[in-house]
Amino acid sequence: MKIATATKDYIFSVGGNVLKKFEKNHSYVMSELLMKDIMATAGTMLFGMIRDLDSKTYKKYNGESLDGKTITIWRTGGMGDLCFITPYLKKIKEIYPTSKIIFGCGAQYAEVMCDHKYIDEFHNLPMDTEIMSRSDFHLMFEGIIEANSEATKKNAYDLFGEYFCIQLEDHEKVPNLTVVEDSLKYFQELEKKYIKDPQPIKIGIHLKTSSKIRNVPIFIWTKLINEMFEMWPNVCIYLLGSHEDADVGNKISYGEKAVGKVLPFFALTRNFRDSIAAISEMNLIIGGDSSGLHTAAAFGKPMVGLFGAFQSKLRLATYQNAIGMDSKIRCSPCFLHGNEPCDNSDLEGESYCMKIFDTQDIISEVGTLLCINEKIDLNLLPAKSVMMALSFYKEKNKEKQTNEA
């Protein structure tokens, strides 16, 4: 990590969206990669003195009491990483109610985190060292997954817990997110416009991940969606993501049974708050290794996750009603990160590990979850799902009889 001092006032923006306002003579903490990205746009003269982050500036939190103390926490990266952090923010406030939490993340997720229930003060990254000087302790999470060999063995929540010096029970290892009323109303208005089924089974498809390596190919989404329409008459599909996912969402083709049963929410969402609201309304979510699954977990939604580069247990192990499907290919899991295709990808840059999922196997898992959550009957299940669903019902009845006794 670097500390860079701005030589002038400068508004750093991308696509008209202000990401950071730099002030002359103020210094900021950022990764070397982020610094280079900013200078590529603003010019190499934006930052004067550049030095390594030192212990005088960064006072790492090591489990000390936070009663009456201030801690500054930040993380660049995707929304999934922020989801892993949120239960620990809640726990800090439970243990140390007089503590103050200052939080920073990328501007693209500011609308979600800026008024989070357990955050007292929010800032877009890079973090101003003046803000850090007002804190008793600091915690940053750069490289916690990308540059950590333990990330190949431990659940993501446990990795973050070690940095926080806090142990959570498994049932606490779920994201802490809230639905904004305006976003919920917006979603419901769109749903009335696009979905004509009066009693839809709402299945959300989270189209893309933050890494090309982990993306599910378009042909699998197309085949899966049309097969679900054939299998279950009341299923409606909600395509989730952002405007940047149009390269996938707009290329999915449908049969005649899709009329009035598809909501292209990726093209209509205004921000991530809208996505959270949409996911909170789903009966089930299907996605790759992405923030869509973690957002679903915040609201106890059933999910089926498709995993290749990472093992599903490292992400979904603490979630209820979560089924992780791991790719069965020699090079998986590879634990690769980044936006460049892996070496074992096709000419389109799609990972082979994400191309070999059998859509009927996915439907079998989806059917099991829909059945045990009482959205479809046993007689509408694929043959593979019936035994799993019956096994669940037997366990559920045992628990009921025990509780009644």
Distance between the termini: 59 Å
Strand content: 15-25%
The tally of beta strands, per DSSP, is 16
Strand order of the largest sheet: 13-12-11-14-15-16
Please, how many helices?
A: 13
Indicate the CATH architecture of the largest domain.
Answer: 3-Layer(aba) Sandwich
The dominant shape is globular
Main beta sheet strand tally, sense and closure = 6 strands, parallel
Give the count of structural domains: 2
Tell me the Rg in angstroms: 23 Å
Description:
It is a single chain. By secondary structure, the protein is an alpha/beta fold. The chain folds into 2 domains: 1-176, no CATH class; 181-404, Rossmann fold (3-Layer(aba) Sandwich), CATH 3.40.50. It is built from 13 helices and 16 strands. The protein has helices spanning 32-42, 79-95, 110-113, 129-133, 156-164, 181-194, 218-231, 246-249, 272-280, 291-298, 313-316, 359-372, 383-404, and strands at 2-6, 10-14, 17-22, 27-30, 47-52, 70-75, 100-105, 121-124, 127-128, 137-140, 201-206, 235-240, 262-263, 284-287, 303-307, 322-326. A 6-stranded parallel beta sheet has the order 13-12-11-14-15-16, with helices on both faces. The longest helix has 22 residues, at 383-404. It is globular and about 70 Å long. The mean pLDDT is 90.
Outline the secondary-structure elements.
Layout: E1 2-6, E2 10-14, E3 17-22, E4 27-30, H1 32-42, E5 47-52, E6 70-75, H2 79-95, E7 100-105, H3 110-113, E8 121-124, E9 127-128, H4 129-133, E10 137-140, H5 156-164, H6 181-194, E11 201-206, H7 218-231, E12 235-240, H8 246-249, E13 262-263, H9 272-280, E14 284-287, H10 291-298, E15 303-307, H11 313-316, E16 322-326, H12 359-372, H13 383-404
Parallel strand pairs: 6-7, 6-10, 7-8, 11-12, 11-14, 12-13, 14-15, 15-16
Antiparallel strand pairs: 1-4, 1-5, 2-3, 4-9
